[in-house]
Amino acid sequence: MTAFISAGHYNGDSGAIGSGTQENIETMKFRDTIVPILKARGLHIITDNDNENLAEYLHRIQTGSGSVVLEFHFDSSGSGASGSTSLVGNDADRLDNAFAKELVDATSNCLGIPNRGVISEAQSHRGRLGLMREQGIVSLLEICFIDNQHDMDAYRKNCYELALKIAAIVCKYENIVM
User: Are 119 and 49 a contacting pair, CB within 8 Å?
Assistant: First the structure.
């Protein structure tokens, strides 16, 4: 059983900035929190490297139809928006959508922030996301808004509990695709 867990940003790409922090720092910390939990549950985990960009990571990994692929991000709006969102590929199937829904539901409930639901990559501000070309059950999770202090306070307070909940979801879907 192999799951692919990515921080979404690396040392050379700060991502969004807000609430006194950078997206890459927060996503790397969260990835590093969830990976030991997943390993303790018997999963083999392949992660991105803090010094490789997305193209390098996607070139290195070998996902397959029996893979769970998850990438973490923090959203930013500049307008005080709040909540969690999951993204799936434009060609998402039933399992992709179910996985993404469980992720956003768990995140919203754990952090006590709005559930912004599951959207397709076409509905994102980028329109197309490289991660969505990978095989397996794939989702990108926008944990919360990095530029919303309430969201970030809730995240910081509940980070480990959130990691436990997301790890349980990843394990569930790994068991489905084995």
Answer: no
The Cα-based distances of 20 to 49, 107, 122 in angstroms read: 24, 22, 30
Domains and CATH numbers, the chain: 2-177 (3.40.630.40)
Q: In whole angstroms, what is the distance from residue 58 CA to residue 158 CA?
A: 30
What contacts 36, CB < 8 A, 6 or more positions away?
Answer: none
Q: Could you give the residue ranges of the DSSP H alpha helices within the chain?
A: 23-40, 54-60, 94-111, 149-177
Report yes or no: 135 and 67 within 8 Å, Cβ to Cβ.
yes
Query: Each residue of 84-106: pLDDT tens digit?
Result: 999 999 999 999 999 999 999 99
pTM above threshold 0.85: yes
